[in-house]
Amino acid sequence: MIGLAFRSLRKRTGAFVASFLSMFLGATILMAFASMLDTAGGDHVNGTAEETLVTMASVVGGWGMLLVVFAVTSTLTLSVRQRAAEMALLKSVGATPAQLGRMIVGEAAGLAVVAALLAIPPAVLVGRGLLGMLHGTDQVPANVSYSFGPIAVAMGLGITFVSATAAALITARRATRVRVAESLMAAATDTVKMSKKRIVFAGLFLLLALDLAVVTATVMRDKGTDAMATAGQADILAAIGLALLAPAIMRRVTSLLAGPLRALGGVTGDLAITTMRRRTGAMAAAVTPIILFTGTAVGTLFLQATENAAMDAAGLIKDNEQKNIETLNLVVIGMVVLFTAIMLVNTLVAATAHRRREFGQTRLAGATPGQVLAAVALESVVLTVTGVVCGTVASAFTIVPFGIARMDSATPDGSVWTYLAVVALAAVLTGATAYSATRRAVRTPAIEAVQA
């Protein structure tokens, strides 16, 4: 089955692109920040510079690791779920659950190793850029040279490999336990039933976020910049918690919008609602990066805006520590924007390419290519609005308690244009990606798409 896994990788390159890119970008981020630990152990590194480098690696790299693991798990799950019919066929010819599990894990392990090795050169470039930024803000002396060593390589390879294989094991266990008839039904509908473990983990992340929010608004009140340590983590935890609940959220949203969309959208609205009801899993996977992007970006941007307003109100000038915190926040924003943007594009492209046969069947049933494109555009609007709303709720776990702690106000500081810019970027990424991927898919003649 390991041999079959590698043959599957060679023959089904397109199906694994999303997972590969998530691992590649994730390994790049992990190694780039881990290289700050290698740099901290070099020559000419004093106490303050060493502390800055270690903080950069541990805080930003730690949250990056959490996002990477979550993204890899999400894309691998989507990839395996899209192959439900293939899994059913293998079972019908005698493949055992253990053999299928080894195949799935073998595919993930092979992807992880290749992705991590290829990520080394860009990780070196990103790491140099991070150190250059710290040099430019005088947080690390200019004579501290960059080092990319064993810590970076070990963390990049190790975490990418472990997260990929662990995600594959979880996904394989769920996929191989399903009977052949159920696998074929899953291939046709792609509906997702949330497991008890998923619900428990979602509740755990949300409770942790709520705990940090309460601590920020009470214990950390009037503690100055220290309140950022607890507030800054709450939005990420809340966003992950809501993302885990995405299947249930999308089912509820689809149910609520079914009537209005059919009434206002006519054939297009009916087509979009029917598709969303049948493709809960794909819709949940697509809305996940929007939630993560909006929640973390809005939370961090308004967190920093509130901190700046508090310092201006007190007539204070930022010291090196405060500059370091601001730099960390900006790096977090940049990392999240880049990673979730690519994750969003990957997921939408993979999900849309998999629907080529569905689009062909819809066109054979009488729908025009224009109606298919319009239905996908309507789906994108629903995804964007749902993701932005959930992400905004997640960001409130950070900005509301931090505003109370620093400014005695639950209303965050910051421009409404900042929020609208985040929303606009999420909408453009979602809409443009879905539209372009669907347009490529409908170029294939309907008969060829159905027979593919």
TrEMBL record:
Q: What is its main location?
A: membrane
Positions of transmembrane segments: 12-33, 53-79, 100-124, 144-170, 199-219, 231-250, 282-303, 330-351, 372-404, 416-435
According to the entry, every stretch annotated as the ABC3 transporter permease C-terminal domain falls at: 63-173, 331-444
Coiled coil region boundaries: none
Keywords from UniProt, A to Z, are: Cell membrane, Membrane, Transmembrane, Transmembrane helix
Question: GO MF terms on file?
Answer: transmembrane transporter activity
Query: Where is it localised?
Result: Cell membrane
Instruction: Name one matching Pfam family.
Output: FtsX
Give the superkingdom in one word.
Bacteria
Topology with respect to the bilayer = Multi-pass membrane protein
InterPro entries registered for this protein in UniProt: ABC3_permease_C, Macrolide_Exporter_MacB
Q: Does the keyword Cell cycle apply?
A: no
- Work out whether the entry's keyword set contains Nucleotide-binding: no
Query: Its GO CC terms?
Result: plasma membrane
| PANTHER family attached to this UniProt entry | ABC TRANSPORTER PERMEASE YTRF, MEMBRANE COMPONENT OF TRANSPORTER-RELATED
- Entry's family note: Belongs to the ABC-4 integral membrane protein family.
What protein is this chain from? ABC transporter permease
Native source organism of the sequence: Actinomadura rubrisoli
Organism lineage reads as: Bacteria, Bacillati, Actinomycetota, Actinomycetes, Streptosporangiales
